[in-house]
Design brief:
The complex is a heterodimer of chains A (about 500) and B (about 100). Chain A is built from 21 helices and no strands. Chain A is globular, with a radius of gyration of 22 Å. Chain A has helices spanning about 10-30, 35-40, 50-60, 65-75, 80-85, 90-105, 110-115, 120-155, 160-205, 210-220, 235-250, 255-260, 265-295, 300-305, 315-360, 370-395, 400-425, 430-450, 450-455, 470-490, 490-505. The model of chain A has no long low-confidence stretch (mean pLDDT about 95). With about 100 residues, chain B is an all-alpha fold. Chain B has one domain (about 5-100). In chain B, about 80% of the residues lie in helices and about 0% in strands. Chain B has four helices and no strands. Chain B has helices at about 5-10, 10-45, 45-50, 60-100. The longest helix of chain B is centred in the C-terminal third of the chain and has 39 residues, at about 60-100. The radius of gyration of chain B is 21 Å and the shape is elongated. The model of chain B has no long low-confidence stretch (mean pLDDT about 90). Classes of the chains: A mainly alpha (about 500), B mainly alpha (about 100).
Chain lengths: ~500, ~100
């Protein structure tokens, strides 16, 4: 098939400019409402549950889940569906274990929860290390993906694409803070859900809106194997370890956790997860239909020829069914998707630097409102420029493992400390600090020694650590260290304050 | 009778509140675990079962994968409905007693 992919078409540029224009207008509007720290980090806690549900979906659904999973289904068939389920199952667990206590105990970052009764400086530094590592690994994956995708779709050079994404995102976050970030994420979620729904409907129309007919066409073209489990899960232990990383990693992603401070109370936080789970679940239910339609209508050879990983399956299907204008729309949606995720990540990284490290560690909590907002903006600038530089530095590298690494660090460093500080009276400062650092170091080290990096990237013949994702080992280690160190080095002051913390956790007495 | 903030923690109502919250959370988390890890372990060890046909070509694995997502969403709703109705009412009762 003839494709205009890789050329900057008029429609793609128009849709993209329209998105940027609308989002910059919102940023201008938001900037006038962003003067205090609560406005900058938490949108003045004025976001409704429904809006936050959409924004959470916009914060979470990356270009990798849109283009990547459609491509995986198109090229590998059923395995792509197995992979998609892993991205959803963390949401109910986030609701059951973390969301409401986090909302009641914290202010702007997840480190606030740890610092509620544990000693401020050590736990803030440790939590900021875990949080910033997670953000950096995730950002590298997003920025390199952004450069490659935009180059593929618009034909502009890699570096230019990375710089455009970085600068536009910086304008949102720098001037509009969380208010602008929230609205960019809401608009992106609507565009993504709407665009993929339309693509799915156009695809299904070719099969009389009958999934059975679509599957029959897939089986006729690629054999029954396309609808059966393939090579994704060969070792159940490996699959469970990856599943643990995806599920509990979500519970330690700083940019997701931060969103719960934007709603008025725990009840709204709770409801916003139900909305988010609905939107994200719907998305992962329809995206395989897009992938299968692309396999039949576009063909695996054509998809793989343009991009080995299959990332262009959805855009090619869009072009085939809706012509160049629809391709332009889908390309702009992919661009918006990346922008919204990177904006959330940048704000989370900046809040760890400014709120946790500068205000609470360096200044011991004594900084006035003006200084705090100024430092938050400087931190945003630092993180944004770092994101652009990392994107350029990692050009041409295979960074697929970075997402796995971000989730491994999140579930091994951030999640155990967060859960135990909420639930375990005897959890101590030393225990928290040790568990975060051990979790972060083990997750990173084991991924380097695993097949994903040691064999595939460093080209060694055999891995030193057998599992592709280390979560099952590194997360367990983090919990064990937390228990042992807390019992060896107790914290009487923190134990005494647990009662007041419980009252705030469950009754929201004194919650901000 | 709860007379002060300090006494809440010792009150039986409060203990019941905390216990019910974590019993609910634990049961629902276990259900998510059984659904999701059950699914991927099944794919790993009983691939042939997942490849069984439930239609002319449709394999059992396809509806099961969709079901994993649908069940996750339903469990989320179960928790929200429970918390909106039961948990929030218990919290309100305790707070009322505190104000008296």
């Amino acid at each position: 098939m003839e494709t205009t992919l890789g050329q900057p078409t008029v429609s793609a540029i128009l849709f993209f400019l329209a998105f940027v224009a609308v989002s910059l207008l919102i940023t201008y509007w938001a900037a006038r409402r962003t003067r205090t720290t609560t406005e900058y980090y938490a949108a003045a806690r004025s976001v409704t549950a429904f809006q936050n549900g959409l924004a959470l979906a916009g914060d979470y659904m990356s270009a990798a889940s849109f283009l990547g999973i459609a491509g995986l289904v198109a090229l590998k068939g059923y395995d792509g569906m197995i992979y998609a389920t892993g991205w959803l199952v963390g949401w109910p667990v986030l609701l059951f274990l973390i969301a409401e206590p986090l909302r009641n105990l914290g202010k702007y970052t997840f480190a606030d929860v740890l610092a509620y009764r544990l000693e401020n400086r050590p736990v803030r530094v440790a939590a900021a290390v875990g949080g910033i590592l997670t953000v950096i690994f995730y950002t590298i994956a997003q920025m390199v993906g952004a450069g490659n995708l935009i180059k593929l779709m618009f034909g502009i050079p890699y570096e230019a694409a990375v710089i455009i994404v970085g600068l536009v995102m910086l304008v949102y976050v720098l001037f509009g803070g969380m208010i602008a970030t929230t609205w960019v994420q809401i608009i992106k979620a609507c565009l993504l859900l709407g665009g993929v729904t339309l693509l799915m409907l156009l695809g299904m129309a070719q099969f009389g809106f009958n999934p059975g007919k679509l599957y029959a066409a897939v089986a006729a073209k690629y054999g029954q194997a396309a609808l059966e489990p393939g090579g994704l899960i060969t070792n159940p232990l490996d699959a469970v370890s990856l599943g643990l990383a995806l599920m509990f990693g979500l519970l330690g992603l700083p940019h997701i956790l931060m969103r719960f401070y934007t709603v008025p109370d725990a009840k709204a936080a709770r409801k916003s997860i139900a909305w988010a789970t609905g939107f994200i679940g719907y998305f992962y239910c329809i995206i395989p239909l897009v992938g299968f339609s692309a396999a039949v209508l576009v063909g695996r050879e054509v998809i793989a020829q343009i991009d080995k990983g299959g990332n262009m399956a959805a855009p090619l299907l869009a072009e085939l069914l809706g012509g160049t204008p629809f391709l332009g729309f889908i390309a702009a949606v992919a661009f918006a998707t990346i922008l919204a995720v990177v904006a959330g990540l940048t704000l989370a990284g900046a809040s760890a630097l400014s709120h946790d490290i500068y205000v609470n560690v360096v200044k011991g909590g004594h900084a006035n409102e003006r200084e705090q907002v100024r430092v938050a903006r400087i931190a945003t600038l630092v993180v944004g420029i770092l994101a652009i530089l990392l994107g350029i530095l990692f050009k041409g590298q295979n960074v697929a493992f970075m997402v796995g690494l971000a989730f491994a660090v999140a579930c091994s460093a951030n999640f155990p400390a967060l859960l135990l500080s909420i639930t375990w009276r005897r959890f101590s400062t030393a225990g928290a600090t040790a568990s975060i650092l051990v979790g972060a170091v083990m997750a990173t080290l084991l991924i380097v020694l695993s097949p994903t990096v040691w064999v595939e990237i460093l080209n060694n013949p055999a891995p030193i650590f057998p599992l592709k994702n280390p979560a099952i080992v590194s997360m367990t280690a983090s919990f064990v260290v937390a228990f042992v160190v807390s019992l060896l080095v107790p914290d009487k002051k923190a134990e005494a304050e647990f009662e007041m913390q419980k009252i705030r956790t469950y009754l929201a007495v004194g919650a901000e | 009778m709860i007379r002060s903030i300090k006494e809440i923690e010792k009150a039986p109502e409060f203990k019941r509140l905390v216990t019910s919250r974590w019993v609910m959370a634990t049961i629902l988390t276990l259900l998510v675990f059984i659904t999701y890890y059950g699914f991927i372990i099944m794919v790993g060890v009983a691939r042939d079962t997942m490849a069984l046909r439930v239609g002319p070509v449709t394999t059992l694995g396809i509806p099961v994968a969709v079901l994993v997502i649908v069940i996750s969403f339903i469990l989320t709703l179960v928790y929200v409905v429970w918390a909106n109705a039961r948990y929030d009412r218990l919290v309100a009762t305790i707070n009322e007693k505190l104000e008296e």
